[in-house]
Design brief:
By secondary structure, the protein is α/β, with parallel strands linked by helices. The chain contains 15 helices and twelve strands. Strand 9 and strand 10 form a beta hairpin. Bound molecules: pyridoxal-5'-phosphate (PLP).
Length: 394
């Protein structure tokens, strides 16, 4: 009998663990999990090593090392033009994941409702549940994944406290446009909602520059911006994240943070401060590398007969597999990992209403050229492997 409590029982194990297990079992090229298969920059690693050698091995200040909260505030001002007080308006967490859960734990009363847009990063509904909140889900539809104002309004009730938004978006790569930003501002003001803006892919944009939701004047006083080192510096395993916002909202996140992890690892915070002071050329090159990877994988997916939805941001591509006649996304991804030797994620994992994901698969392109080339080579035989399977089954 399961001893997992009723709040967490519905969530089970994450799909990433299962797809990684299958990828290993079938010696597949893993484009499943969104973790780079290359290391982050040397100057950041050196800063961490130096911090360890220098004896910076004790707890950091609960709200974040002063040098890191200052660097976060500086970078935020550089990208948004908004000045924040590092001692009041920033908190450093163990990855964005902790910032998400501590926002819920610090802000929600039991029974408060939180609007989530599906497909969503899979920790969102679990974080809401852990805090005793209730998730209300609004579906974003392929291929453009834009917010529909009517659908959003239908999800709102007098109990709604918070909207959780993610742009650039995992898994679709969509970035909120002006019309969607206006919808969010209108609805949030009208219903006096807090907005949690997950911007972990803030440095990964390919068409237009990312603009934080906090830039919207109506949203600034009600928005917490979440981000982390993991995606922007290719250190997903370091788990250094942060929340930035009005001091009253950040105080709520801190209230939970002090009793969950208290602080993120000190030497990694030292290195994160160095990372955030990287010159503009770092970010320009970073994006150029990723744009090349995106275009390369999109071309390979297209050549295999899949139909990629080209992402404006993030490091994922959703592709439509309906031409191949599988029942759903899980069936397709299972075939792909077992028979073709490429692991992708069935995006049903990011939906409550899983039928919307049936024709899609998510591929991560945060991979070395050799990995992408190997995947593309294998994907090229997708059609013929499937035809052989069907012939043998007859
Ligand atoms: C949208 C989104 N938010 C948050 C996270 C987690 O970030 P971190 O690793 O910093 O906890 C991820 C990781 O994949 C993500 O895709």
């Amino acid at each position: 009998m399961s001893r997992v409590n009723s709040r967490l029982r519905p969530f089970g194990a994450t799909i990433f663990a299962e797809m990684t297990r299958l990828a290993v079992a079938h010696n597949a090229v893993n484009l499943g999990q969104g973790a780079p298969d290359f290391d982050g920059p040397e100057f950041v690693k050196e800063a961490a090593i130096r911090a360890i050698r220098d004896g910076r091995g004790q707890y950091a200040r609960m709200t974040g090392l002063p040098e890191l909260t200052a660097a976060i505030a500086q970078r935020f001002e550089r990208t948004t033009g908004i000045q924040v007080a590092p001692d009041e308006q920033v908190v450093v967490t163990c990855g964005c994941t902790e910032a998400i859960v501590n926002s819920m734990l610090g802000l929600l009363e039991p029974g408060d409702e939180v609007v989530l847009f599906e497909p969503f990063y899979d920790s969102y509904p679990a974080a809401v549940a852990m805090a005793g909140g209730i998730a209300k889900v609004v579906t974003l539809h392929a291929p453009d994944f834009r917010i529909d104002e009517e659908a959003l309004r239908r999800a709102i009730s007098p109990k709604t406290k918070l909207l959780l938004v993610n742009s650039p978006h995992n898994p679709s790569g969509h970035m909120l446009d002006d019309a969607e930003r206006n919808i969010l501002a209108r609805v949030a003001v009208e219903h006096d909602l807090i907005v949690l803006s997950d911007e972990v892919y803030e440095e990964l944009f390919y068409e237009q520059a990312h603009r934080s939701l906090a830039i919207e004047p109506e949203l600034r006083d009600r928005t917490i911006v979440l981000s982390s080192l993991g995606k922007s510096f290719s250190f997903t395993g370091w788990k250094v994240g942060w929340a930035i916002g009005p001091s009253a909202l950040v105080a709520a996140v801190r209230a939970a943070h002090q009793f969950t992890t208290f602080c993120a690892p000190t030497p990694l915070q030292v290195a994160a401060a160095a990372a955030l002071q990287a010159p503009d050329s770092y970010f320009t090159e970073f994006r150029a590398d990723y744009r090349a990877r995106r275009d390369h994988l999109a071309q390979g997916l297209r050549a295999s007969g899949l139909i990629p939805i080209i992402p404006e941001g993030s490091y994922f591509i959703l592709a439509d597999h309906s031409a191949f006649g599988f029942d759903d996304d899980f069936a397709f991804c299972r075939f792909l990992v077992e028979k073709v030797g490429v692991a992708a994620i069935p995006p049903g994992a990011f939906y409550v209403n899983k039928q919307h994901a049936r024709s899609l698969a998510r591929f991560a392109f945060c991979k070395q050229d050799a990995t992408l080339n190997a995947a593309i080579e294998r994907l090229a035989s997708l059609g013929s492997i499937l035809a052989n399977e069907k012939r043998d089954a007859r």
